[in-house]
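Lab meeting, item 3. Inverse folding demo.
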């Protein structure tokens, strides 16, 4: 009797394919477990802690049963006895220019000084200083004072726009900007004709 060779099984029924599929599924399952273990787990929010501080009630001072007047204190004599200060009505005469400039050059004393003493006081209280708008203040001493004054006046004036003016409310410090509509129309018609 002759034995016929058996037909080989198809490749998908091979035990090797089944083992490879089983090993692959096992790898996927282990990788899934590792990924889940490495992913940070959302933690539950911690409850908010509230602290209550109960301080003792302030103690009310107890009033005495009977109020007595304070005993008379003995007045101690002062440690140092001194003569009462003497009032100085007139400045002593200046002997040096430093004393003159320190003590006698005050504005209230200038009228009493001689011309030589007034010359030692310097230019601060000279006759030119009293010509200034505020006596004793610094005055402008530039070479081109008029130009600087014009620049200051231009800087301190309010800026204006064409066809506008300011109107002051009577009895108030407020002012309003007024626009002239006819002037605006003239400006628009002149600009459109060009």
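The presenter then showed the designed sequence:
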């Amino acid at each position: 009797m002759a034995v016929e060779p058996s037909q080989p099984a198809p490749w998908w029924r091979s035990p090797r394919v089944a083992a490879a599929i089983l090993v692959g599924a096992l790898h996927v399952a282990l990788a899934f477990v590792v990924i889940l273990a490495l992913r940070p787990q959302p933690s539950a929010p911690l409850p908010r802690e509230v602290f209550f501080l109960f301080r003792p009630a302030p103690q009310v001072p107890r009033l005495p049963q009977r109020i007595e007047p304070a005993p008379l204190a003995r007045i101690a004599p002062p440690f140092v006895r001194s003569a009462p200060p003497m009032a100085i009505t007139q400045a002593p005469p200046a002997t040096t220019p430093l004393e003159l400039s320190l003590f006698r050059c005050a504005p209230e004393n200038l009228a009493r000084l001689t011309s030589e003493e007034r010359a030692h006081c310097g230019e601060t209280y000279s006759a030119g200083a009293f010509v200034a708008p505020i006596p004793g203040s610094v005055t402008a001493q530039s070479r081109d004072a008029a130009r600087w004054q014009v620049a200051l006046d231009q800087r301190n004036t309010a800026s204006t726009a064409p066809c506008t003016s300011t109107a002051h409310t009577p009895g108030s410090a407020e002012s309003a900007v007024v626009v002239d509509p006819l002037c605006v129309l003239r400006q628009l018609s002149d600009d459109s004709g060009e």
